[in-house]
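From the pipeline queue, job 12 of 40. The input is one protein chain; the requested action is below.

Action: predict structure.
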Amino acid sequence: MDTGIELEKFTNSMALEMGLAVVGLAKSRNQYIALEINRLNQSVFLFVDDSLPVDKHNWLRRKANVAKQFEESSLNVKNDLKNGNMTLEKSFGLDEKDFIAKGGSIPIFVKNAGMVATITVSGLHDEEDHKIIIDALKGKYF
C-alpha cells in the first residue's frame, strides 16, 4: 500500500489514533519526527518533536500538497518524476515554495468517497518518513 491508504471510514478519532501510533513508533526507535494529519484543508493532528527546527511545518505542508495534487504518496510522485526525467515546476507548473516531491505524505481514501485526508511525516530521510507511516499503521488500518 504505497500509493495511499484506503479505509471504510475516516474520523478525527481515527486520526488521533493513527498519529499517536506513528509518534509512538518514532519514540520507540529514538527518531525525531514532525507529523500532521489533515482532513483536506483542516488539520486534525499535529506533532513536532521538540528537537526539530521550526521549518518542519513548511515541509509537512509542501509534502502534503503533492499527495493532494496527485492523489498518491509523495514518494511515488518523487519516483515517477525521477523515472520520467520530470520536475514539479517544469512538468506541472507547481512552485517549489508550495510543493516538494519527497517521501513522507500518504493520502487517505474512504471507499466510495475518494481522498479525504493526508498523513505526513518529516524529520527523517524522506524514504524513512514514508516507511514509518506504513510500519506504524500496517495491520491495523490496512
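Job complete. Residues 5-137 form a domain with the Beta-Lactamase fold (CATH 3.30.450.150).
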